[in-house]
Structures are given as structure tokens and as C-alpha cells.
């Protein structure tokens, strides 16, 4: 039977959290760099129970998996741009992905994109801009990913997405065949870096000359992660009204805690700092898209892979409201018989 206490408890549990709808996109894409394996990350993350972990956060979380991106390449444009390796692959994948991100957002869901290497963020940010015009991006990374084909030492596309997105850099690019769908409409003032510690010389020049918001490891050391994230958000979204996008490269986390990644750099964020950053972003209530990229299950031992996948899972669940303080019970956890939902 229901007494007044149990009805009150049920009401509290039902009202505990806001409805959150999530759309998951897998992007098994690894042609933005040269190491095989990063394309298997969506499968590893799903197999490790990511979707279940999200559903466990609270009753009002609703997760829809939109599956993996499929694309076919146009061989006519291969080698058409100097120093952009496997260019035709990125062109084909990002075109499909951008549309899919827009679709997820237009369905009213927060878009969670599982990479793949970081070149795919060109598409996720583009797709986000199509759905919500005013977007601010936190780029969490050891690297700045702001090379052009002229400044890149590697020719790897995962080091170039920020430069492709920024309107301030559009003059630095040659004509890019097959990329006419992508207009660099985003201002670099709407992007903030967290976690930088491996920045190429021309990237440093650009960051300084354009005054890009950047909280590298030195600033994090100085002010702490909490202050740095708030300062970054205040700068890229001063009115606190923009739709937020977090592009999270797992190599921002120290390689001791997330070793299975293609370009690891020591001296990075702790997992605790990565989680706290996401807790702050969650609390804004304006988070609409997350990319989790650069987990490479072919790098390191089984233990390394398990560490990296679990770090990624913790970071993602924090972004959707998982609380280290402990989660409230769900309706079916209550030690009472539940009345009909009209109460
Ligand atoms: N998303 C990444 N892990 N990027 C690493 C980029 C490394 C280097 N700056 C390059 O352009 O090749
Ligand atoms: Mn990156
Ligand atoms: Mn990186």
C-alpha cells in the first residue's frame, strides 16, 4: 500500500533530474592520421557498455543510437591538395557526418559522436553550426589541431580541423575540391583550448596573433582546472547563451591514464580534471554536442586499452550528469510498490 511518505519519496525521485535525450553517432574513421585501429573505438566503447552507463545515470535519460557513419570516396580528388594525406577519405566522411549531426540536433537530442580520429570534428562542429547558429567550442587536447597544409609537418588531417573551421583562416587554404558544402563560418573567438602541451611553431604563432583563448597545462597548473574552464567559457561565450560543443581528444588526458592513443603526450590532465571539466559543462545546461576522439584500441596492452576506454566512459558520463557525489535512486529502485504514474 502507498502511504504518504512513499508517495512523497516517489515524487522526489521522479522530479530529480531533467529529461535528457542523447543521440549517439559512431565514426569508424582513421584516415586523418597514419596509425591503424582508431576506427575501432566506437565498437570498443559500445562493447564496454557505454550506452548502459548513460542510461544508468537517471530515469529521464533516453539514448538513441544512430549507428555508424558510412560513406564512399571519390577517387578523382585523391592527391588533389598537397600535404593533405588521404584527403578524399576525409571529404567523403565529413560530408555525411555533418548532415547526421544536424539531424540528431534537430531531433532534439544532444549529439554524442564517437571517433575516429580528430579530423571528424570538422564535421561535428559544422553540423552543429547548421542546427544552432551560435556555437561555442571547447577543444580539449594536448594539440592545437590548427595546422594548414602549408604549416603541417605531418600532412595528417587530424592536425588541421580547427584551421578548416575558422573563418579567420579561410584565406590560408587553397581551393579544396569536394568541400564546397563546408563554409568556414565560425569565428576563432568562439573556440577555447584546454590542455595544450604539444603545439607546433606555426600553431603557436597563430594562437598568439589571433588571440585565441587557450588554457594550456601551464595555466591549468597556475589557476586549476575549475577556474580555467570557467575563464574559457566566459571568453568564448560571454553572454552565456551559446550552444556548447566539447571536442574531447583523449590525448588531453595524461598518457599514464589514457595510454591507448596515437599521439600521446606526457604531463597532461588527470582523469579527475577531465571529469570535472565535463561536470562544469553539464551544469551550464547548454551542452549540445560532444566528440570523444582518438581512442586507439590497437595501441598498448589489453590493460592500456581497458584504462583508456574506461577513462573515456567516465568523461562522457560526467558530461551527461553522472555525479561523483552519488546518484539518487531510480523509480524502480524504490523499496515500495509504485502507484500509477498519474500521481
Ligand atoms: N588530433 C591529434 N591527436 N592531433 C595531433 C596533431 C599533431 C601535429 N601537430 C600534427 O599536425 O601532425
Ligand atoms: Mn586533437
Ligand atoms: Mn591531440
Explain what this protein looks like in three dimensions.
With 343 residues, the protein is α/β, with parallel strands linked by helices. The chain has a single domain, classed as Ureohydrolase domain (Arginase, Chain A, 3-Layer(aba) Sandwich). The protein is 35% helix and 14% strand. It has eleven helices and eight strands. The chain has helices spanning 4-14, 41-47, 50-55, 87-106, 121-131, 161-165, 201-210, 217-223, 225-236, 271-284, 302-319; strands at 20-27, 61-68, 110-115, 135-140, 191-194, 213-215, 243-249, 287-293. Strands 2-1-3-8-7-4-5-6 form an eight-stranded parallel sheet, with helices on both faces. Helix 4 runs parallel beside helix 5 (121-131) and helix 10 runs parallel beside helix 11. Bound molecules: arginine and manganese (II) ion (MN) (2 copies). The site of one manganese (II) ion has 5 residues, from loops.
List keywords for this structure.
single chain, 343 residues, alpha/beta, binds arginine, binds manganese (II) ion
Low-confidence stretches: none
What is the level 1 CATH name? Alpha Beta
Helix content: 25-40%
Provide the CATH superfamily: Ureohydrolase domain
User: Total number of β-strand segments?
Assistant: 8
Strand order of the largest sheet: 2-1-3-8-7-4-5-6
Beta content: 5-15%
Helices and strands, with pairings:
Blueprint: H1 4-14, E1 20-27, H2 41-47, H3 50-55, E2 61-68, H4 87-106, E3 110-115, H5 121-131, E4 135-140, H6 161-165, E5 191-194, H7 201-210, E6 213-215, H8 217-223, H9 225-236, E7 243-249, H10 271-284, E8 287-293, H11 302-319
Parallel strand pairs: 1-2, 1-3, 3-8, 4-5, 4-7, 5-6, 7-8
Helix pairs in contact: 4-5, 8-9, 9-10, 10-11
The structure holds arginine (ARG) and manganese (II) ion (MN) (2 copies).
Residues 118, 143, 145, 147, 152, 154, 156, 158-159, 200, 249, 251, 263, 294 line the site of arginine.
